[in-house]
Specification:
This protein is an alpha/beta fold. It has a single domain, classed as P-loop containing nucleotide triphosphate hydrolases (Rossmann fold, 3-Layer(aba) Sandwich). It is built from five helices and eleven strands.
């Protein structure tokens, strides 16, 4: 993981002074856990969870809010202020700061959407099939969220049919019992002098 973190830190800024790194994939594919571990390897890089930007009424129609609250301030080199959504109370909370750090991770379904890609230094895709990802998500959330998951799956299918992320991913991330493996993705922008195959586990740290 540390080798990947080092490669990301060496990238040129993509949004003002920030190297914005997207972590996308199907719901339940492990984005949040991976982003947390990568943030730690980056020395505590901020992580923006797109679950805080979306809402029940706007599962995917949150682009304008993200651009206004986060991307525009970063473009000016200033701290962003976004209002996280409370999924239980069904309302947005008080503003929360997001510093324009050298590397900021944006994780969530749709992190690699068309409107956001111009501001990303790298896009990572969690390589887990949709049905397997959704099964993991349903098991995680339990019967309480069964109705929501039915609505979510329909919305996610529609989103990725209209605005796919994986074809534009620079790196593909797979998880195993040994850790993570990071491979070159369809976008393949790493040069011959850059390592794109990393393994993270008990006997190997990327």
């Amino acid at each position: 993981m540390h080798r990947l973190a080092s490669a990301l830190r060496d990238l040129p800024p993509s949004c003002g002074p920030v190297r914005l790194v997207g972590v996308d994939g199907h719901a339940g594919s492990g984005k949040t856990t991976f982003a947390g571990r990568l943030a730690t390897a980056l020395g505590g890089a901020p992580v923006l969870h797109l679950d805080d930007i979306a809402s029940h009424e706007e599962l995917f129609a949150w682009t304008a809010r993200l651009l206004t609250q986060v991307i525009e301030p970063f473009g000016h080199g200033t701290t962003a202020q976004y209002s996280p959504y409370d999924w239980r109370a069904r309302r947005f909370g008080p503003p929360r700061p997001l510093p324009a750090a050298p590397v900021v991770l944006v994780e969530g379904v749709g992190a690699g959407r068309r409107a956001l890609r111009p501001f990303l230094a790298r896009l990572l895709w969690m390589e887990l099939p949709d049905e397997e990802s959704w099964a993991r998500g349903r098991a995680r959330d339990g019967a309480e969220q069964r109705d929501f998951w039915g609505e979510w799956v329909r919305a996610e299918r529609t989103h990725f049919a209209e605005d796919p992320s994986r074809p534009y991913a620079h790196l593909l991330v797979t998880q195993s019992q040994e850790g993570y493996e990071v491979l070159a993705g369809p976008a393949r922008t790493f040069g011959p002098d850059q390592t794109v195959t990393h393994r993270d586990g008990p006997s190997a740290v990327c």
